[in-house]
Amino acid sequence: MVRTSWMQRIRAKTMALFALAAAICFTAVACSGGGGTATATGPSIAPELVADYIHNVLAADRTAYTKHVINRVKLLEGKPKEEGVLDVESTEGWQQTDGIPLPAQMFRLGSEIANESSDFTYSLISPWNLNDNHAPKGEFETASVEEMIETGEPVRGYQEVGDQVYFSAMYPDVAVAEACVTCHNTHPIHLERYPDKVFEMDEVMGGVIINIPVDSMPADA
Ligand code: HEC
C-alpha cells in the first residue's frame, strides 16, 4: 500500500514535469514561428511562407479561370477554339466587344481590387510588359526580375518603398502553352516595343510579385 502511493507520487511528479517541458517546447516553437516576429496576439508566421501561400492561391485561380472558362469559349482573340462550347470571345478589348477578359487581365483586375484595400500588394511583372503597370520599378525589382529570368527560380528579398519596408517575393511565369508565346509575340505592342524579343516555349516570360509590409529591414538584409 505504502509502496504504491510512493510510486504514484513519483509518477504524478514526472507527468507534471513532462507537461511543463512540453508547454515550454510548444511556446518556443510557436514564438520562433519559422523566423518571423513574435506578436502579443499569438504565434507568428514567416513572410516567406505567407508569400508562398498567396502565390499558390493566385496561381490556382488563374489556372482555374484558364482551364474552366477560357478553354471553353469559342473564340480567343479572333481565333476559334476547338473545344469551345460557350458563344463568347475572350479578348483584350472585352469591354468594347462584349467579350470576357484574358487570364492576365482577370489577374490584374483582381489585384487592383486587393491593392486598394491594404498595404499588401501583388502584380504581374516583366521587362517585356505589354501593360506599363507591369514594368519592374526600382533597383530591387529590376535586379530581381533579371535574376528570376536567368535562374528560372523564385527570388525573395526586402525592399524599402517610401517609408515602408516590404518583404517581396517574385515567382516565374513560364510559357507553358503555345498560346502564351503566339499571343505575346504577335501582339502589336510587343512588336513595336520589343521587335527582337521572340518568346519560346518553357521560357520565363515574367513573373508574379508579392509585397508584404513588415515592421523593419532585418539586420542581415
Ligand atoms: C490571347 C493573348 C494572350 C495569351 C494567350 C497570354 N497572354 Fe499574357 N498577356 C496578354 C496581355 C494582353 C497582357 C497585358 C494584360 C493587362 O492589360 O494587364 C498580358 C500580360 C502578361 C504578363 C505581364 C507582363 C505584361 O506583358 O504586361 C505576363 C508575365 C504574361 N502575360 C505571361 C503569359 C503566360 C505565361 C501565358 C500563357 C500561360 C500568357 N501570358 C498568355 C495576352 C496574352
Please supply descriptive tags for the structure shown above.
221 residues, alpha+beta, Beta-Lactamase, 2 domains, 45% helix, globular, binds heme C
Explain what you see.
The chain is α+β, with helices and mostly antiparallel strands and 221 residues long. The chain is 45% helix and 20% strand. It folds into 2 domains: 1-39; 46-214, Beta-Lactamase, CATH 3.30.450. The protein has 7 helices and 7 strands; from the N terminus they run H-H-E-E-E-H-H-E-H-E-E-H-H-E. The strands form 2 sheets. Strands 4-7-6-5 form a 4-stranded antiparallel β-sheet, sandwiched between helices. Strands 2-1-3 form a 3-stranded mixed β-sheet, with no helix packed on it. Helix 2 packs across helix 4. The longest helix is centred in the N-terminal third of the chain and has 31 residues, at 2-32. The protein is globular and about 55 Å long. The chain starts with a helix and ends in a 7-residue tail after the last strand. The structure holds heme C. Heme C (HEC) is lined by residues 76-77, 92, 102, 104-105, 108, 124, 126, 129-131, 134, 173, 175-177, 179-180, 183-184, 205-206.
